[in-house]
Records
---
Amino acid sequence: DTAVSQTPKYLVTQMGNDKSIKCEQNLGHDTMYWYKQDSKKFLKIMFSYNNKELIINETVPNRFSPKSPDKAHLNLHINSLELGDSAVYFCASSQGSTGDYGYTFGSGTRLTVV
Amino acid sequence: GEDVEQSLFLSVREGDSSVINCTYTDSSSTYLYWYKQEPGAGLQLLTYIFSNMDMKQDQRLTVLLNKKDKHLSLRIADTQTGDSAIYFCAGEISNTGKLIFGQGTTLQVKP
């Protein structure tokens, strides 16, 4: 039973399109995150939600908009996709602060913008 | 802000020990973590250490923490080909829930 699941796993789209990535966790965690991993494998936090409330919003273009309908779901919508948005996007969850267990990560969504 | 640095690549022979090193800047991190990423997969938590500990051992894994030098290491004993992956160290910026990751160390295990 997958703990943190993301869909789709792969996404290929043209520049200028709008796309969404969905994330769901069944761990009962109250905090969810989006991370971006670039081609050099560098991981950078984008957003964090705690119980549907936005708590971390790093310097991310306005074209990226997270939405959390409930504490088990965190979606990422991207408008007007650009070539530089190509990356692997990881969703993660944790119970409160990371504490003893760190984050549980999804398997990632590989976004390719052509 | 917090910065976490790692060497990028390590190659060892099967059966040898591997030591992956990490340095960090935020001494207030309560927990420090090691994650493993296999090709095409997400990050898997391997182990963590609480900041008031110097060492933690978990089967083949040994984590050493030198708070004075802000240095963290992960030793993998009897390294196997299945250990080939990218290893990330990460520190939590205090009370933010925000994990900052190093660049990752690619471990190559030769048969």
---
Amino acid sequence: QQPVQSPQAVILREGEDAVINCSSSKALYSVHWYRQKHGEAPVFLMILLKGGEQKGHDKISASFNEKKQQSSLYLTASQLSYSGTYFCGTSVLGSGNTGKLIFGQGTTLQVKP
Amino acid sequence: EAQVTQNPRYLITVTGKKLTVTCSQNMNHEYMSWYRQDPGLGLRQIYYSMNVEVTDKGDVPEGYKVSRKEKRNFPLILESPSPNQTSLYFCASSLRQNTEAFFGQGTRLTVV
């Protein structure tokens, strides 16, 4: 039931782009994205609700494809500050209003100068 | 300052000795949740609460209890801790479900 994130790890040079995928075996109500730096608490990036929406702020955006039961996080022109572990959290359709949230195992992103 | 406060930040205890990890938020949020984080497993939800006196099991509730008697507080109780509960624990709150969550700084628990 845990969503699967891919890749597990990625190393980039500053300015390069990256895509992190989050796939579920169940129909989804919402997808949540968080970034966690080493030794710190997770920090909110964005939430996408069913309806196939796309969101973005600054150079980080995400899409949610209900039919494919997956979401993708896009990081463009990466900066050193983007380094960290990215988690997607999913609420399953039917339990979306209950608050139950299941996170993927995380994708570690390292941006080098 | 808007924040989620967990205490203690670090705790070493022995098997079977009851303990409570406190969580408090000052943002008048309805939704609160507890997670444990273990290497390679990501964040796993233990319990969540939609409002005062409303709590429900997350993905890994076994061995834990919670209560929500006041809106601001959501303590996590381990009645009889075991070594497999050694983990990093996070409390989080949000205005309601499916909105931005604010995480506490974490509690690193070691059960020996």
